[in-house]
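Quick illustration, no need to memorize.
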Amino acid sequence: MADGGARRPRSKLLRRGGAIVAAMAVLGLGAPWLAPYDPSEQPDGRAGQNRPPLTVMPAVRLDHGGWLLADRVERRPEGLRVERLGTTTLIPLERVENLDEDGVADHRFFLLGSDKFSRDVLSRWLYAARLSLGIAGLALIVSLTVGIGTGALAALGGPLLDSLLMRLVDGLISFPWLFLVITLTALFDVGAWSLVLILGLTGWMTVARLTRAELLGLRQREFVQAARGLGAGEVRIFFRHLLPNALTPLLVESALRIGRLILAEASLSFLGFGVQPPAASWGNMIADGRGAMLSAWWVSTFPALALLFTVIGLGMISDGLRDALDPRLND
């Protein structure tokens, strides 16, 4: 009973963190179906800018294809009476393409408000989740692939190769990481894929050192010696016995690392070195609203909260995995 009670909070921590991250991932993956509008669409750059959350505005579609957002519309025999920007305009009925009996058939509903370009914050938030989490996830795969491969070669390739690879890792890890990433993004034309490579190829060194340390300890264990005595080859031993047993600390490190990668991508985008407009990421959304925190707090607040909860959720997953996979805590 005592053991079950001790394990329950740890499993609850893992479930709660997993629920937070899974919710963010589902919202990001479902952005093309969940987003009410095109994240880059600017229907009316003046009347629709910096509208607060829960704003509903009639949308007038004109005959040339443009949109006007209004505070109030009224259909009259002589034309459509449109109130916007503190003035009233009468638009001929033949110029309006979406008339109905009371005014116009279309409305813009800004659930999370709009930004300074009248873009829907909710739509941009959803697509930003898709991009920010996708970049961080792919960069993590790159880091794990290079780091595990390098660490395995160092641990199993002999003293000379071990010394060469570890000196390379020590040299790379001595560079200030954020400065290195900013330098690389400033030198190259950065898109989503290049950002994945830059983040992934500059963040594998810790994974390599962790993998090497784990494999050096495991290769001397009795079950590995027994497998070798039974004639198993080194490749089979690595994939069948060594790597699966080294995954516990790597899983914990991965949960922490993807949180750091999400923050790194957001920091780069905030500084203008990452995802470039009009594409939306949480970092450049925060940057868009930093100059209007008092008058349009929602532009920066909602992506900042998404970053906060995602990183907290990943930290909870890391702590839960560490406790759940530690045999000393589950005896």
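The longest strand covers residues 55-61.
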